[in-house]
Amino acid sequence: MLRSNWMGLMIAVAIAITWLISLIVLLPQHSTNYSPVLLVFWILSRTFLHTGLFVIAHDAIHGNVFPGDPSKNRWVGRLALGLYGFLPYQTCRKLHWQHHAYPAQARDPDFYSKPDGHLIRYFIRWYGSFMRNYLTPRNLAVVVTGIVLTTVSLVFLAKINSQNLILFWLIPWILSSLQLFTFGIFLPHYHDDDQSNNNVHQTRSYYYPVILSLLTCYHFSYHREHHAYPEVPWYQLPDVAMADGYPEPFLP
After folding, report:
1. How far is CA 96 from CA 42, 89, 247, in A?
2. Considering just the CA atoms, what is the radius of gyration of the chain in Å?
3. Alpha-helical runs (H) found in the chain
4. Rounded CA gap, 68 and 147, in Å?
5. How confident is the model over 41-74, as pLDDT tens digits?
6. What's the rounded mean pLDDT across residues 109-126?
7. What span, in angstroms and rounded, lies between the C-alpha atoms of 184 and 99?
8. Measured torsion, CA atoms of residues 111, 230, 6, 243, in degrees rounded to the nearest 10
9. By the 8 A CB rule, do 160 and 154 touch?
10. What is the DSSP string of 57-93?
11. C-alpha to C-alpha distance for 139 and 130, rounded to whole angstroms
C-alpha cells in the first residue's frame, strides 16, 4: 500500500505534541475550576492521547514510523515508551513479535488460555498475566523509579498539585493500559465457545464505524488485518479492511 514515508512521523509528532501540550496546560490548573463533566472529558482525552504514545511505539516496532530505517524506528519507539510509562523498548519489541509469531499459543506472551466460565474473572486474570509478562521485576523497578522521580520533581520542584498529577497523568495512564488491553488484546484474541476466530492469526476484527474504531483504540479493532499486514500503519487499517471485502465498516 502506497504511503508517504513522512506520514507516520507527522502523525506521531502530532500525537506526541498534543499529549505534551495538554499535560503542560492541565497540570498547573486547579481541578476545582472544572465541572465534573469537563473534568471527565479531560481525563478521557488524556487517556486517548496516552494510548496514542503506545500506538506510536507499536508502529515503530513494526517499522512503520520510518519505513526502511530500523535505527530511527528504534529511537522513536524508545522515546514513545519512555513518555508512556518508562517501558523498555527492546523488551516490548521482543514480546510483541513473539505475540505475532505464536498468536494464542503457549509462547504468546499476550495470551492467557485459562478460561473458567466467568468472563469478568477471566478478563482480570488475563490482564494480570499480560502485565506480569511485560513488567518483570527489573522493568517494574524502572517504572516505579521513573514515577517516583517524576512525581518528586513536579511536586517539589515545579510546585505541581499532586491531585493534578493523579487526575491528568496517573489515572489516564492506568485507563490507557486497560484500553489497550481490552481493544488490542482481549476482544480480538478472546476464544469463545464457537471458536469464531479460527484462522491462522487466531484473531478477529470488530468492524466498528471508522470514527468509533479510532476512538476505541486507534483502529486496533481491525485486528485480523493488522496481523495479516503488520507492515501497514494503524491509520490505514480501515482501508485494508475495505480492500479485503468490507465495503463499509459495520458493527458485529
Report:
1. 30, 10, 30
2. 19
3. 7-26, 36-61, 70-85, 89-101, 119-134, 137-152, 162-165, 171-181, 187-189, 210-217, 223-228, 237-243
4. 34
5. 999 999 999 999 999 999 999 999 999 899 999 9
6. 86
7. 12
8. -120
9. yes
10. HHHHHTT-SSTT-HHHHHHHHHHHHHHHHS--HHHHH
11. 14
